[in-house]
Amino acid sequence: MNHPQTPATFQDNARAALADGTLRGALGRATSLFAERRATALEGLGDWEELRERGRAIKEEALSDLDRQLETFVARAEERGTQVHWARDAREACAVVGELVAAAGARRLVKSKSMTTEEIGLNEALETDGTLPIETDLGEWIIQLAGETPSHIIVPAIHKTKRAIADLFVEKLAIEPSDDVDVLAGAARRVLREHFSKADLGISGVNFGIAETGSILVLENEGNARMTTSLPRVHVAVMGIEKVLPRFGDLEPFLRLLPRSGTGQHLTSYQSILTGPKRAADEEGPDELHIVLLDNGRSAMLRERVTRQSLACIRCGACLNVCPVYKAIGGHAYGSVYPGPIGAVITPQLQGLSRAAQLPFASSLCGACRDVCPVKIDIPELLLELRKRVAEGRGPIQGPTPVSTAKRLGFASWGFVLSRPRVYRLLARLARCVPWSMLDSKPVARLVPPLAAWTRDRRLRPLARVSFRDSFARSGSAQGERP
Amino acid sequence: MSARNAKAREAILGSIRANLELARAELVPTEVATSPCPGRPAGLDDRDTAIAHLSSTLESVAGRVTRVATRAALAPEIARIFDAHGVTTIAASNAAWIPAVRASLGERFRWLATDCTRDELFAADAGLTGAQLGIAETGTLVLVSEDERHRLASLVPPVHVAVLPVARIVATLGDALAALRGSLDSGPDPTLTWITGPSRTADIELTLVVGVHGPRALHVVLLEEEEA
Ligand code: SF4
């Protein structure tokens, strides 16, 4: 695709993705594998429902008291030598990190996977300063090399085949061609270790912050986050304000919920719980630890119950893997860092409804996301609320209404007919006389504008010759009963 | 605090308060249950069950576990593991038991100084460390930075050998968090590293690869002898 994919071009993005057979194959394998693994990981954990309740309750508690939780978190973190920086929006956050890089005189930056830094476009900002961080998560690094963007929360390079990665490595790293995954990963290990051994500043995200102790937790499988937070002399962690939990012990439910939901593991390989920089010269770890606390539209989501729940999200990716829409089109089509069901609700709230008005409609409302969400976010409810706002032309940020007059008229007449049984029956009888087989042919369907949009991807189904009501009434009377 | 930072702080906290105030009417105070966290596995309070569970869980994620009865048996077991991996250069932590192991192994391996350079560390074949806690529920080792310098030795070399006294195994995640939290004034240790198996990724076509960044092999030696 040659135009940039944004939430506003969702429909075009989705159509292009649907036409990409390789992508759909890879997506199908990834999503069903993760969904299966998740199901296996839940076996033997009988209290899953109660566990979800517990996780959600803790999030609710923290969010409904967020100002005080953050004040405690910051006070504790500062007592332990962590430096905390507040950032109202993406631009301010990037500027803060840029200043930290400059102040540290850092030339070589490494970064571990973090959605929050992608949300604020940190790499692009730092690149203009001449200090582009090297992504060190294998998948993220591959797409950075290729100049692309992630397509899945957990497996960012899911859209790339082994062959494409091998070609990329041959071109960029000058390795011998190979389709052995171990060889490819080994090549990445060599190059990235070179970066790690020389890096002077590491950037990471944060999975959970703990108010009562001022700690942050970073969870991963590869070890690149441990490298990023342990080797360079400065560590900068970018954290959304919604990530804070009240108590250290609150990690227990989340450590059971998150890995099972994300990758189907009982626990990811590594958790780093960091509480301040090193305190003595002979200790290991960075000399400085900075936390950048990011708002970027989050505080406004606290206002209403429906939107507030999106702040409970722990970015596990489970809702992506079960979503029929995501499974068909993948992450790029959403045009933002947050794809899938959670992206469809978060992106419009972060970027403004006017810029992402199509996303709340990218769902069949089947509810599979709600069923798997480890913190019981009612995503369908949120989607409906956002659809309502789009239709009413209002949103967290006021924007032009993208609903056409024709559409509104259409739905108004639909409503009129549906609420009048006689009119409905009459029209239905008329519709049964339409020669459907003729209409189903593409040229005819294309002539009728509202049908054209429908028939582009679907076939028209003829109406049954006899309605269910009529046939039911008939069979009922044949047996001597009244329906 | 810089003027910008102070201003941003006030703006964000102000926005949080204003929005929560608007929500106040429907904000029901949430009672977070103080009962034990759901999902805690039962039966792990029994020492032998806990040890068996830790071992099998760790092995299910490609970790290796062996057991020795006494401190004296540590050195030969560690040498055996190193030989199996073709190790010559070792980055060891400053754990109290390591000099004894080293002395009894003589010149068989090359031991890096604890203050070795980064290049030397990156060239080491194996890291040797202790672990301060084991979690039976998840097969996890917990490394506490206050007690030992093992943050890098457990991470950078391709093989990590860790010695865990069985007396330090706790049953569940909750037990581990309770033990690690520390008093509120001092808080937890600066760095807690939790390790469950070797480094892994499935980023290329979902094929599992171990050791993409961290160790390719994790070998835990369980020590039965009580600590002095
Ligand atoms: S909405 Fe729920 S399922 Fe989706 S990523 Fe967030 S926590 Fe996971």
Chart the SSEs and their pairings.
The complex is a heterodimer of chains A (483) and B (228).
Chain A: H1 10-18, H2 21-42, H3 48-63, H4 66-79, E1 83-87, H5 90-104, E2 109-111, H6 115-119, H7 122-128, E3 134-135, H8 138-146, H9 162-173, H10 181-198, E4 201-204, E5 208-210, E6 215-220, H11 224-230, E7 234-240, E8 244-245, H12 251-262, E9 270-274, E10 288-294, H13 305-308, H14 318-322, H15 324-329, H16 340-351, H17 368-372, H18 379-392, H19 405-418, H20 421-431, H21 436-439, H22 442-447, H23 449-455, H24 468-478
Parallel strand pairs in A: 1-10, 2-3, 2-4, 4-7, 5-8, 7-10
Antiparallel strand pairs in A: 5-6, 6-9
Chain B: H1 3-23, H2 47-60, E1 64-68, H3 74-84, E2 89-92, H4 98-105, E3 110-111, H5 118-123, E4 126-130, E5 133-135, E6 140-144, E7 159-165, E8 169-170, H6 173-180, E9 191-195, E10 200-201, E11 209-210, E12 217-223
Parallel strand pairs in B: 1-12, 2-3, 2-4, 4-7, 5-8, 7-12
Antiparallel strand pairs in B: 5-6, 6-9, 10-11
Helix pairs in contact in B: 3-4
Bound molecules: iron/sulfur cluster (SF4).
Features of the shown structure:
heterodimer; A: 483 residues; alpha/beta; Rossmann fold; 3 domains; 6-stranded parallel beta sheet; 4-stranded mixed beta sheet; 24 helices; B: 228 residues; 6 helices; 30% helix; globular; binds iron/sulfur cluster
